[in-house]
Amino acid sequence: AQSVTQLGSHVSVSEGALVLLRCNYSSSVPPYLFWYVQYPNQGLQLLLKYTSAATLVKGINGFEAEFKKSETSFHLTKPSAHMSDAAEYFCAVTPMDTGRRALTFGSGTRLQVQP
Amino acid sequence: EAGVTQFPSHSVIEKGQTVTLRCDPISGHDNLYWYRRVMGKEIKFLLHFVKESKQDESGMPNNRFLAERTGGTYSTLKVQPAELEDSGVYFCASSPDYNEQFFGPGTRLTVL
Questions:
Q1: B52 vs A61: CA distance, rounded Å
Q2: pLDDT tens, per residue, chain A with 115 residues
Q3: Do B56 and B47 contact (CB within 8 A), yes or no?
Q4: Does residue A42 contact residue B105 with C-beta atoms inside 8 Å?
Q5: What does DSSP say about strands B75-79 and B65-68: parallel, antiparallel, or unpaired?
Q6: Euclidean distance between CA atoms B19 and B80, whole angstroms
Q7: How far apart are CA B108 and CA A90, in angstroms?
Q8: How many residue pairs from chains A and B have C-beta atoms closer than 8 A?
Q9: A102 in contact with chain B, both atoms CB, cutoff 8 A
Q10: For a 10 Å CB count at each end of chain B, is N or C smaller?
């Protein structure tokens, strides 16, 4: 079984500041890990994914995340926040090397960027 | 290339009525998924089709929910009869393989 915990349902940063969104997972088998973003009135868009290659994963719009097995974490970072980054972010996990492909999501973190 | 589309975008119905949600996946994607987000909660998996077959329906909450995917193209999710707790946003996603899932904008269902 898998589960995802996102610490902080709301995060507020100033424009230009570091963005750090936390994600911890629990999985009985090696996981694939994903970060999705949802802008208002849109569907979920994939930011980046970890599929067992490099542990530091770079995504779109300057975001990156590092898979840390020892900490069971997959935190999302961006060095400098932009107003357009304001959205809701979801961490998700699915088991690797099984037939099951359902995503298990965290509860989401809403990012607010202050001017 | 068109993305995943869902219809309607919003639906408001009375308790006890029937509602049918439709999802059109990206052309050529054999895998189709339904998810639901109840207000304030996490997005939860409902079921997974591979072509027209149900691969995994472990997330379907009860037998008031019926999903179909005739011909392996579009899918419908029917709720009959709807209850108050069925309110939420229903997302559809599709994928060509066991990797990235492409999500639609969702259908917001309100049951009064």
A1: 36
A2: 789 999 999 999 999 999 999 999 998 888 899 999 999 888 899 999 998 778 899 999 999 999 999 999 999 999 999 999 999 999 999 988 777 789 999 999 999 999 9
A3: yes
A4: yes
A5: antiparallel
A6: 7
A7: 18
A8: 56
A9: yes
A10: N
